[in-house]
Amino acid sequence: MSLYCGIACRRKSFWCCRLLSTFVTKTRYLFELKEDDDACKKAQQTGSFYLFHSLAPLLQTSAHQYLAPRYSLLELKGLLGKFGQDTKRIEDSVLIGCSEQHEAWFALDLGLDSSSISASLQKPEVEAELQGSFMELRKALFHLNGKDASLLFTAQALLRWHHAHQFCSRSGQPTKKNVAGSKRVCPSNNIIYYPQMSPVVITLVSDGTRCLLARQSSFPEGMYSALAGFCDIDPGELERIRGSCLV
Ligand SMILES: [Zn+2]
């Protein structure tokens, strides 16, 4: 029995180490791409792209599930060419993750006109060409697998942030994103803007056998949610919390 437990523990420890090691190497790789524009451009050559239109991801239906298709750089250039778009539009894409084999994944919004070179592509034409639909992400959530859902929400948040932060709040000049989209810089005064982090709290109220759920009228039929909310802490409040923690 103790021999069996010993082997099981060693196996568990082996898989924990392996998972941790994969996580560390992926994180290091992503960090490199965020800091090095040339490395990130190179990663685009072998990477793949999720597509959005006005913050709605492109999804395809397969056996009652939604799949989020990815396109290579070559396929993406072909698509933009077909719709008479400048391939410089790909510069608007953002890095959202990578596979264990270090295939970098990016997201590009074809509907937001976030720079002077990019006019919005017509949604129905792109949907017909790619045999999919740009769908509201919240409504599609329960028909997506966990990996796609997580990546698409990350992508949507980052694309939204870039769309809303195109100008420097001090000089009013246009800011420029780095290749990975992990920051924006104002060329006139070198102020760096990073995507905002919003802490969120989710609670499940339960008496052990039942739990309290809520729904909004805008939810699709049958969808309920636990109670959640964002924590918006201003700097003064943060100092107060720090002070009470020290006491
Ligand atoms: Zn500025």
Automatic annotation (TrEMBL):
This is Nudix hydrolase 13. Gene3D superfamilies: 3.90.79.20. It holds the Pfam family Zn_ribbon_NUD. InterPro entries: NADH_PPase-like_N, NUDIX_hydrolase-like_dom_sf, Znr_NADH_PPase. SUPFAM superfamilies: Nudix. Residues 49-161 form the NADH pyrophosphatase-like N-terminal domain. Residues 164-194 form the Zinc ribbon NADH pyrophosphatase domain. One of its GO terms (molecular function) is hydrolase activity.
